[in-house]
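4.2 Preliminary Data

To establish feasibility before requesting continued support, the project team ran the inverse folding procedure on a target of 174 residues. The structure was first converted into the token representation described in Section 3, and no sequence information of any kind was made available to the design step. The complete token record follows.
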């Protein structure tokens, strides 16, 4: 896999106390609040990991959060659960993804999603899971993820999933 190409001066790293987050504004209050008030605490408790995209001044211009989880066998579509045990199944959750409004429309969200999915794929080789799940904060977010083959979780129109086998195929195309 080729590495994600970030614009000059941009790079990604794991969230730390030193990162400048207070001016981050994606335009979605819950996305902003998570980064500013909860992401580092959840990471310190080993509940999730947040990676931040930084500009040349070390300002956070984007981020995503990943966490392990479980989903009930009967919540997944048939094409995923066939031949799987009827139990709780492991998933990886793309819990949050946001781009600061000043940096939207520059394809950074696509690159951040690509990086998040690469991290998911790497994790899946060490800790198997059946799908990546995410909850969409807005209808625009839902349309964004659906362009990258995420599909609705049956009965949950704002929850999308990307099955492991599709993620694995995507990573082998790169």
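Position-by-position output of the design step:
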């Amino acid at each position: 896999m080729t590495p994600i190409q970030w614009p000059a001066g941009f790079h990604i790293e794991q969230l730390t106390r030193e990162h400048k987050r207070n001016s981050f504004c994606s335009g979605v209050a819950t996305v902003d609040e998570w980064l500013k008030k909860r992401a580092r605490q959840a990471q310190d408790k080993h509940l999730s990991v947040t990676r931040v995209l930084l500009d040349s001044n070390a300002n956070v211009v984007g981020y995503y959060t990943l966490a392990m989880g479980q989903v009930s066998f009967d919540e997944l579509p048939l094409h995923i659960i066939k031949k799987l045990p009827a139990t709780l199944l492991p998933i990886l959750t793309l819990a949050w993804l946001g781009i600061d409004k000043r940096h939207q429309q520059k394809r950074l969200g696509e690159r951040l999603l690509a990086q998040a999915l690469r991290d998911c794929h790497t994790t899946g080789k060490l800790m198997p899971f059946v799908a990546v799940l995410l909850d969409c904060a807005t209808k625009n977010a839902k349309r964004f993820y659906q362009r990258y083959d995420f599909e609705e979780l049956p009965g949950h129109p704002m929850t999308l999933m990307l099955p492991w086998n599709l993620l694995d195929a995507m990573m082998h195309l790169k």
